[in-house]
Amino acid sequence: MKKLFPLAFATLFTVSMAVSAQAAEPFFLNKVGAEAEYALKDARGEVTSYTKSVVTALSSNDPRNFTVTYSAEVFDKNRRSLASPVTSTVTVKDGAVDTTPVMDGVEIEGTLPTYPENLSVGQVLEYSYSMKVMGMKTTTEGKNTVVARESVTTPAGTFDCFKIESEMSSKAMLQTTRMKTISWLAEGVGTVKSETYDNRDRLQSSMELVAKK
Prior knowledge:
Layout: H1 4-15, E1 35-42, E2 47-58, E3 66-76, E4 86-93, E5 96-98, E6 106-111, E7 124-133, E8 136-154, E9 157-172, E10 175-186, E11 190-198, E12 203-212
Antiparallel strand pairs: 1-2, 1-12, 2-3, 3-4, 4-5, 6-7, 7-8, 8-9, 9-10, 10-11, 11-12
């Protein structure tokens, strides 16, 4: 369970990164019963596991002010459950998302990755935060650059997305890791696809939406 928890948290955190106040829907699952299933792949493109996020409750019908409660469950490559679902909440206030998932045992401080109400190509958004999970503290600094708006097709369908390039540096236990992530975000979904590269621009892993309800 200790190894699975960070994976589930990372998926929840990625899915809950953004909201656009003037868009038709936030960049997040925002209806009770909505589901998103992702395939996680290694550098060779082979599926290593799956995760599924399900919205279980909304606090309000106000499209600019509400709290989403959702759970995420991790499965192996054969879709066998590996752990009990992890529950989290995300709050949207005045059209802006609080990207700190509220979860037992997780402490986060600082400026998290967020996006303004009017997301547009060319924006550069910096962030710096620390996270403590099960007693281990990690500090992260980085920036997100909105590089394009493009159509992305996955097994779940075709989506109109903002393409975000994220360069980040994380430090834990006196070791620093640098990586780059490219993500594609769609309204009403969140992350549709993402790719993670090391500091030599070598693909390390990827994730894509394979089913949505």
